[in-house]
Design goal:
This protein is an alpha/beta fold. Helix content is 26%, strand content 28%. The chain contains 10 helices and 16 strands. The chain has helices spanning 67-73, 140-143, 147-160, 177-189, 202-207, 221-228, 244-251, 275-284, 290-296, 312-315, and strands at residues 3-6, 10-12, 19-21, 27-32, 41-46, 55-65, 90-98, 110-114, 123-127, 131-133, 168-171, 192-197, 212-215, 234-239, 253-261, 299-302. The strands form 4 sheets. Strands 1, 6, 7, 8, 9 and 10 form a 6-stranded antiparallel sheet that branches. A 6-stranded parallel sheet has the order 13-12-11-14-15-16, sandwiched between helices. It has a two-stranded antiparallel sheet with strand order 2-3. α3 (147-160) packs across α4. It is globular. 41% of the residues are buried.
Length: 316
């Protein structure tokens, strides 16, 4: 999760200011042929799509890999297209065709784009409002790993969480894609971060600014958080683990605390779909009661960037 697939090479013609693409014909796509481990992925070829009015066609340099893609491959992501399908939520690359009505981009512009699946391909067509010019100083491969991770973290911490300098934030999977984005935003706002991760990642996380690291494999994070905060709890929790973790994270909140649930990785611990982790996660998930929230001055939010396509002006 949080990585990239690189699709095409690029070469620079010194006579022109823009990147020129080495032709790729026919277009290649990575298909999920059936639910299962990575071996079910197949490379297939197809004709390049043509952009419709208001769309931008992007010759893809790299596509982001997110947990939603992995669970879709296992047949566990309800929002994914029916299998066989091509997934992928984010790409970077170069504009190589424009649909009618798109006048503020030019052929050769380097861009990053959000895709409603279909990103694992040499070429994609996306609406103009889901395309952003590439900022200077970031290579296209790195850029493809930014949109989903940083938008998710932004929606939780800034848009809804209002993180402040005097806040303490618990970030689960702090070494992951969203975790790293969230850590940077907490540092920007001056908040204190407690991060969960395997022990081998603690040294690097401390270098990046995590105040306290918890080994989720050997330590009970709920117990450790309450020790570290002297029983007060934290202001914000970011939890993509799900199941029992959501319940414990909710109990870690202090008054006016906010729990953000943005995934359920514990439901899919391996490479194949398994029923028991799903059932266990559902059983152990918290039963959030309105009057309990009222009494304890706590709140819980669900964040799913894939369900904000009708709110592109707020999420992109």
């Amino acid at each position: 999760s949080g990585g990239t697939l690189q699709f095409v090479e690029r070469e620079l013609d010194e006579r022109e200011p823009n990147w020129h693409l080495i032709p790729c014909a026919p277009m290649r796509q990575i298909w999920i042929s059936k639910p299962g481990p990575p071996e079910v992925l197949e490379l297939r070829e197809a004709a390049d799509p043509e952009p419709e009015p208001g769309q931008v066609r992007v010759r893809v340099a790299a596509a982001g890999i997110n947990f939603a893609d992995l669970t879709a491959r296992m047949g566990m992501y309800p929002d994914a297209p029916p299998i066989p399908c091509v997934v992928g939520y984010e790409v970077s690359g170069v504009v190589d065709a424009l649909g009618s009505g798109v006048e503020d981009l030019a052929l050769g512009d380097e861009v990053v784009a959000l895709t409603r699946f279909g990103g694992y391909a040499d070429v994609v067509c996306v609406p103009r409002n889901q395309v952003v010019r590439a900022p200077a100083g970031i290579d296209l491969v790195s850029l493809a790993a930014i949109p989903v991770n940083y938008l998710t973290a932004w929606m939780m911490l800034i848009e809804l969480g209002n993180v402040q300098a005097d806040h303490t934030v618990l970030i689960h999977a702090a070494a992951g894609g969203v975790g790293q984005a969230a850590l940077q935003m907490c540092r920007w706002r001056g908040a204190t971060v407690i991060g969960t991760a395997s022990a081998s990642k603690h040294e690097r996380l401390r270098e990046l600014g995590v105040a306290h690291c918890i080994d989720y494999r050997t330590q009970d994070f709920e117990v450790e958080v309450m020790k570290l905060t002297e029983g007060r709890g934290v202001d914000i929790v970011l939890d993509a683990v799900g199941g029992e973790s959501w319940a414990k994270s909710y109990r870690c909140l202090r008054s006016l605390g906010r729990l953000f649930m943005f995934g359920a990785s514990s439901f899919a611990p391996g490479e194949r779909r398994r029923l028991w982790p799903i059932l266990a996660g559902l059983i152990r998930a918290p039963r959030l009661r309105p009057f309990d929230m009222l009494d304890k001055n706590r709140g819980a939010f669900g964040i799913n960037l894939g369900h904000l396509w009708h709110e592109t002006d707020r999420s992109a």
